[in-house]
Each structure stands twice: as C-alpha cells, then as structure tokens.
Amino acid sequence: MSHDPRPQCLYLVGDTFSRRLTEHRGVPPELQVSFEDFLNDTAPHADVVVPVHAGGDPGLRDETDRICAERSTPSVGLQLLPTKVLCGPVVVPGRTACYACYRKRAAQHAGTARPYDMDAALSGLPEGFGRQHLSVASGLLDLALTEIATGVTGIGGTVRTFNLVSGAVSSAVTVSVNRCPRCGGRFSQARADSAMPVPELLR
Q1: Is 2 inside a domain boundary?
Q2: pTM score, two decimals?
Q3: Which CATH number do you get for residue 138?
C-alpha cells in the first residue's frame, strides 16, 4: 500500500464553489467546516487549513492566517475570481511570509492603477464555473500541498495562478514586509546575531 505524502487538510467552506471543490476532491464531511466554526475553535485540527471561496474576502483570509500563525499551522487559500483561479500564498508559520505580507506586496505592485478596492468589487458576485475549473483549482492545490509536505525551499509564500482568459499558469513568491508583527519574528534571532555594538561600527 502506497503512502500518501499529502497532509490532512481542514477545508473552510461557505459557498457553492467551495462545496463543489471539496466534493470534487472527495473530502469527508468532518474535514469541511464553516469559517465561524474555525474562528470559534470548534473545528477539528489538521495539518493544513485551506479556506476556499469565490470572489475576494480578505477579512476571512487575514483572520484565518492570524489564527493559523498562533497555532503554527500551515495554510493555503484557494480563490475563484472572474478571470483567474488563484491558489496561495503557501504560508508556513516560522518559515514563509504571511497573508498580511502578501496583501501588502500585492498593493505595492498594483500601485495607483486601481482607484477602487478590487476585493470589495468582487465580493458577492454570482459564481460561474465548470468542472474544468474545479480540476484546475484542485491541481493547483495539490502542488501547494506537495510544497508544504516536502518542505518549502527558497523564499516560499508561493502563489500559483491559472488565467481563465489565456490559459496560462504562473507562480510567484511572497517577500516578507520588514518587521512584520505576524511573521517577522523568525528573523529576530538573525538580526540579534548580526548586530554590532555601536562602538564597533564607529571604528
């Protein structure tokens, strides 16, 4: 009997896309919970937390990331957006950038090109997707779970995207924001070890 290297996942579901995705993956009911149950700590613990939803919901994702950071539990989100399927960032507490850093980096790259909140504009939109979208999303999630199971290399915080218009697949890493209160602590010892007394710097 072959060993399945994929970690056990707890799926946070609440809309049609998330329910169809867990059905597609054959996730047992006990590993599908609402965000409220997860927030109230009544959900079972698992190796990885996977919030799945259509549209933008940064509040849900950020709170999930905060709780996972406190519990030292890896997480990876899966979103269906009008023009893409987005999986990530892959967050491993103590090893990679957090979701808050991802949001800040995304805002930096967007610059002033958008005079509106994209996540707010996408919130509550009708969900339109086919079986092919579920297959693509599931494949991206498998890559993310393999990354977690085998150990993150390099910078980490990987975000994988499937463009629904062009069919292109892309990936990018997430660089931590300097001294992030949520994930920056993993660098504190390195800063302390590399710090030099002021007199030494003046020589």
Answers
A1: no
A2: 0.84
A3: 3.40.50.720
